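Limitations

Structures in this collection are predictions, not experimental determinations, and the ligand pose is part of the prediction. Treat each record accordingly. The example that follows, with flavin mononucleotide as the small molecule, is included so readers can see exactly what is and is not provided: the inputs are given verbatim, and the output is the predicted complex.
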Amino acid sequence: MLRYTSAGESHGDSLIAIIEGLPYKTPINTDFINKRLNQRNMMFGRSARMKIENDKVEILSGVRNNHSIGSPITLQIKNKVNNMNELNPQIVPRPGHADLPAMKKYKNLDARDFSEFASARLTAIRTSAGALAESILNILGITALSSAVQIGERTCNHQIENHDGNDLNCCKLCHEQFKSSISRVMEEGDTLGGAFIVCFKNVPAGIGTITPWEERLNAKLFRVLSSIQTVRAVELGSGINQSGLKGSQAHGSYESSERGTIKTGDISGGIEGGITNGSDIILKAYCKPIATLRKGYKSVDVTTKQESQGVYERSDTCTVSSCSLIAQSLLSFEILASILNQLYMDNFDDFKGNFERFRWERQQI
Ligand SMILES: Cc1cc2nc3c(=O)[nH]c(=O)nc-3n(C[C@H](O)[C@H](O)[C@H](O)COP(=O)(O)O)c2cc1C
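Predicted complex:
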């Protein structure tokens, strides 16, 4: 079973992920991971801290000469800002954060301990584990794409392919408008949310399962998306629009092709009955705006019970584009995990052969 655990704090020494379950001699592409980390940090709308962090992943175990050797793989990102013990107590909880719920859960009036690991800083190391998986999907012929498609009230209805690798990870036709929306709220000391889509191309039909219910591929992918901080709603394909259609309009149909029986006019998002159907997997997620506002926000000092102005520490203005890249990586991990669940072999070349045979055989149906 492919899985990982992550650890670390926002201002601690480092962030760590331990990955288990890859076949022996899986190619490990550190450059690919670092490129994704750099993209995640440099999106327009992030705070100045991102430029300081300049994240680089190091591999501490499980890899020799750029391939897995069968033991758990440890990834590490060193924090450049690692002053956790010097930080002031956080006695004014920030609405929209885990501060107050965690104070109540752990029975402690200083939320600093909890905000250190509730922070989305941890998504850097999760993204590393996911990017490692994405580079393996690429070897299997599967590609992943993502795009910010809504910033605040502005939406983009163009093709996901309409991209030029810009600093908002969005369609080039919407880039300027999205950027000016973010710049405007930045000046106001406010923040913006939005939405993004992630698409996987060339995933063979037949990956996933109907039962047990928690292993259904759509359930696993929804869980991953909603684990990303700020994500508030998730959609598979055109699920929201589909819900308002008549049955006769909502399901497309089948036709025979050289790739076997395939779906046409498919708006299902590539998964039916918990299993891939061979169409593109398309997911959309909606993010709330960042809660920490430079222009201030009302809260309570939990030690005095008096109304208090929340403290502002350097904060992002809009993270939708970063979220799209985080999601692309984390979903890649889940899709690779589902493929390995069905087709695992101890040696990577055997696994790859097994995967290619699986794809070919399913194209005969
Ligand atoms: C990439 C990324 C960066 C974030 N940066 C900030 C930030 O600078 N300031 C902030 O208040 N919240 C930030 N957030 C959002 C909070 O981490 C998040 O809203 C909070 O932890 C509450 O978790 P929840 O949104 O899952 O309820 C960020 C989220 C992501 C995904």
